[in-house]
C-alpha cells in the first residue's frame, strides 16, 4: 500500500461514501469527525442514499451531501455511469469508502478520484490504490472500531469512538410542540418503544410483550408511551397500541427521521430492538433497554454507557437471519418481567 499523498495541511476535497443503513451510518460518525480533524481545511462531502441523509444533514463536519438516488437517477447500469460523471466533475482528491461493496470501489475509480481508501474486500482490490487488508480482529469486534479501522489502515488519526447525531432547531421545535399538544406531563419521564426492525422479524421482540410492558410502565409511572418506527411499522404500532389499554400513542410512519430523532432525545427511557433507532438513542445518550436476539451483540451493541442489553444466550444465536426458522428461542426466553426489571432499574437514575 502506498503512502497517502494528502497531508493535514491540504485544502483537499474529500468524498466519504456513507453506509447504507441508519444504524451503520450513525456508527460511522466518529470517522467523519476524525477526517475533519486530520484535514481541517478540507471540503468534506458525504455520498449517501436518501434515507440516511438525516444522519449527516446537520453535522458540522460535513460541508456537502450528495444524494445517491439508486432507485431512479443513479439506478444500476446507466445510472452508475451518470453518478460517476457527476462525481468526476467534483474533482475529489480522496475517497473514503465506508461501504464495502464492489460498487463503491468502482464508482470511486470511474470518478477518477486520486486516493481511494477502503477495505480490500468484495473483489475490489484492483480498484483501490489504498486497499486495506482487513484485520481478522476487526471482524470480531464492534462496527464502530471496524469503521475506524479504515482510517488506521492508512495511518490517519482517529478521534475516539463517541457517536455524533446533530439535530435541527426545527425538529426539536416539532418534538416540543408534539409533547405539548399531546399533553405530556414533563415532570414525569417521557418513554418510547421501537418494536420494529429492518430485515425481517427475527430481530423483533414479540408485539404482545411490548404491549404488556407498555401497560405496566403506564400504570406504574402514570405516563403514556410513544411507539416509534417507519412507515412499514405503522400496522405493528397500531397492533401494540390496540392491546395496551390506551397506554401508547403510535407515531410510527408519522414523523420524518429527523423528527423521530428529536422525540427520542426527549425520552428518559427508550425500549428497542436492534435497529437504527437504537443507535440514534445511543448517539443521543438516552437511557435505553435494547432487546437483542438474533443479531451479533458484540458487533452492534448500543455504545452509550446508559444502554442495557437484555438477551438470553441460546445455541443458535447470533444467526443473523431475517426470519427465525425454528421457535425463536432468543426472543421467547426474554420475558416481560426481565424487561420491566431493567426499565425500572434504569429509571431510578432519572432525576
What do you see in this structure?
- With about 350 residues, the protein is α/β, with parallel strands linked by helices.
- The chain folds into two domains: about 15-150, Rossmann fold, CATH 3.40.50; about 170-345, Rossmann fold.
- About 35% of the residues lie in helices and about 15% in strands.
- It contains 15 helices and twelve strands.
- The strands form two sheets. The chain has a six-stranded parallel β-sheet with strand order 3-2-1-4-5-6, with helices on both faces. Strands 9-8-7-10-11-12 form a six-stranded parallel β-sheet, with helices on both faces.
- Strand 2 (about 45-50), helix 3 (about 55) and strand 3 form a beta-alpha-beta unit.
- The longest helix is centred in the middle third of the chain and has 15 residues, at about 205-220.
- The protein is globular and about 60 Å long.
- The model has no long low-confidence stretch (mean pLDDT about 95).
What is the makeup of the main sheet?
A: 6 strands, parallel
SSE order, as H and E? EHHEHEHEHEEHHHEHEHEHEHEHEHH
Count the strands? 12
CATH architecture term of the largest domain: 3-Layer(aba) Sandwich
Straight-line N-to-C gap:
52 Å
Instruction: Report low-confidence residues grouped into runs of 5 or more.
Output: none
Specify the oligomeric state: single chain
The main sheet orders its strands as 3-2-1-4-5-6
For the record, the count of structural domains works out to 2
How confident overall, as mean pLDDT? 95
Task: Note the overall shape.
Answer: globular
Can you tell me the CATH topology of the largest domain? Rossmann fold
The number of helical runs is 15
Alpha-beta classification: alpha/beta
Fourth-level CATH superfamily of the largest domain: Glycogen Phosphorylase B
Top CATH class of the largest domain: Alpha Beta
Helix content: 25-40%
Measured by DSSP, the beta-strand proportion falls in 5-15%
Q: What's the Cα radius of gyration?
A: 21 Å
Amino acid at each position: 500500500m502506498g503512502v497517502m499523498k494528502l497531508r493535514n495541511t491540504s485544502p483537499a476535497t474529500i468524498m466519504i461514501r456513507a453506509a447504507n443503513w441508519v444504524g451503520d451510518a450513525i456508527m460511522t460518525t466518529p470517522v467523519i469527525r476524525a477526517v475533519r480533524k486530520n484535514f481541517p481545511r478540507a471540503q468534506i462531502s458525504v455520498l449517501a442514499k436518501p434515507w440516511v441523509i438525516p444522519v449527516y444533514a446537520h453535522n458540522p463536519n460535513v460541508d456537502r451531501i450528495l444524494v445517491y438516488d439508486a432507485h431512479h437517477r443513479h439506478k444500476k447500469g446507466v445510472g452508475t455511469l451518470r453518478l460517476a460523471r457527476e462525481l468526476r466533475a467534483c474533482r475529489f482528491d480522496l475517497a473514503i469508502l465506508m461501504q464495502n461493496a464492489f460498487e463503491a470501489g468502482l464508482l470511486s475509480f470511474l470518478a477518477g478520484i486520486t486516493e481511494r481508501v477502503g477495505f480490500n474486500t468484495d473483489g475490489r482490490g484492483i480498484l483501490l490504490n489504498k486497499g486495506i487488508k482487513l484485520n481478522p480482529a476487526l471482524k470480531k469486534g464492534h462496527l464502530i472500531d471496524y469503521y475506524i479501522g479504515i482510517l488506521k489502515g492508512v495511518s490517519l488519526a482517529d478521534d475516539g469512538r463517541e457517536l455524533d447525531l446533530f439535530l435541527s432547531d426545527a425538529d426539536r421545535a416539532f418534538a416540543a410542540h408534539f409533547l405539548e399538544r399531546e399533553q405530556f406531563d414533563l415532570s414525569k419521564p417521557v418513554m418510547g418503544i421501537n418494536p420494529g426492525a429492518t430485515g425481517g422479524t427475527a430481530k423483533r421482540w414479540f408485539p404482545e410483550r411490548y404491549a404488556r410492558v407498555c401497560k405496566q410502565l403506564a400504570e406504574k409511572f402514570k405516563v403514556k408511551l410513544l411507539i416509534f418506527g417507519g412507515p412499514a411499522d405503522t400496522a405493528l404500532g397500531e397492533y401494540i397500541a390496540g392491546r395496551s389499554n390506551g397506554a401508547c400513542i403510535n407515531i410510527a410512519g408519522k414523523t420524518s427521521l429527523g423528527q423521530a430523532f428529536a422525540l427520542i432525545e426527549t425520552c428518559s427511557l427508550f425500549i428497542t430492538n436492534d435497529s437504527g433507532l437504537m443507535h440514534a438513542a445511543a448517539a443521543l445518550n438516552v437511557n435505553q433497554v435494547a432487546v437483542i436476539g438474533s443479531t451479533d451483540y458484540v458487533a452492534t451493541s448500543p455504545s452509550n454507557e446508559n444502554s442495557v442489553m437484555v438477551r438470553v444466550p441460546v445455541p443458535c444465536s447470533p444467526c443473523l437471519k431475517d426470519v427465525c426458522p425454528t421457535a425463536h428461542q432468543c426472543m421467547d426466553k426474554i420475558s416481560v418481567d426481565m424487561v420491566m426489571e431493567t426499565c425500572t432499574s434504569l429509571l431510578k437514575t432519572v432525576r
